[in-house]
Design goal:
- By secondary structure, the chain is an alpha/beta fold.
- The protein contains nine helices and nine strands.
- It has helices at 11-18, 37-46, 58-71, 84-101, 112-128, 135-144, 168-172, 177-188, 222-244, and strands at 4-8, 32-34, 51-55, 77-79, 155-162, 190-192, 195-201, 207-213, 248-256.
- It is elongated and about 60 Å long.
Length: 265
């Protein structure tokens, strides 16, 4: 059974969680409840929790989020629901994530951190591919998956194109797009002046770099971002050509006002 910490100062939120009749059917014990950021942090020091649901006043919530960013970077976070149905839906989504990150892969040497990172890559691939359609869903997944990409800051999206004469993707690279993405992360994935650069290979073979300032980092101003990302991308392209014999070029660059601008709603 997973353990959930509920941090809220709202009686209606507590009532919604108390209305859940059988927590064990959701894979959880009944949540431990605290009402302040300080109480939540004290509880985490004393008792194990697999996730935290939060609904506090803005100042208290930010205080707790800042502390979780520093001291509990792997702990999934959800926004606390205010109805029984909403709570159950959120907890089911949380259980799916925890089942993946806590799974026993027998001979595989995959850690919880590595599985969480894999889930983040899947999310960003879906976001860039247009599968995540709303700002609210984007914000929910970023918090749940503990991504450090700051959704309120500018982002840069770069599309990379293989040479038209290069049959690498459909021919010599016979392991599939997942293996190609893993290989390209070794060249393009980086932290760049407070920004993080991610690479995503979509199922239709389109290749993208997504760069965004990380939470808690100053990062460059918007006017400088495109130049920094372009320089990093071009340097990485040269390395990919040298080591993988894959010829890529920059097809387009978009500077987004915020990361959530990738969604429709």
């Amino acid at each position: 059974m997973y353990k959930l910490l509920l941090a809220t100062d709202k009686p209606e939120i507590v009532a919604a969680y108390q209305a859940v009749p059988a927590w064990e059917t959701l894979g959880f014990r009944a949540p431990r409840v605290v009402s302040t950021a300080g109480e939540a942090l004290e509880s985490l020091k004393k008792y194990h929790a697999d996730a935290v649901s939060i609904a506090l006043q803005a100042g208290e919530e930010q205080k707790l989020l800042d502390a979780l960013l520093l001291d509990y970077p792997m702990l999934p976070i959800t926004q606390a629901g205010n109805t029984r149905a909403n709570v159950e839906g959120t907890v089911r989504e949380l259980e799916l994530l925890l089942n993946r990150t806590h799974a026993d892969y027998s001979d595989d040497d995959t850690s919880e951190a590595e599985m969480m990172q894999l889930c983040r890559h899947e999310f960003f691939r879906a976001l860039i591919g247009g599968k995540i359609r709303s700002k609210s869903d984007t914000l929910r997944y970023l918090k749940l998956l503990r991504s450090r990409m700051d959704p309120a800051r500018s982002a840069v999206l770069v599309e990379l194109a293989p040479s038209k004469d290069d049959g690498f993707l459909r021919g010599r690279w016979h392991y599939g797009v997942d293996r190609l993405e893993v290989a390209l992360r070794n060249f393009f994935g980086a932290e760049l002046e407070g920004m993080r650069v991610l690479v995503s290979v979509l199922p239709d073979d389109r290749i993208y770099l997504l760069c965004c300032t990380m939470l808690g980092e100053k990062g460059p101003d918007t006017a400088s971002m495109a130049g920094l990302v372009t320089g990093h991308a071009q340097q990485s392209i040269d390395h990919v050509r040298e080591y993988l014999d894959l010829h890529l070029s920059i097809a387009s660059i978009r500077v987004l006002p915020t990361l959530t601008a990738l969604t429709d709603i």
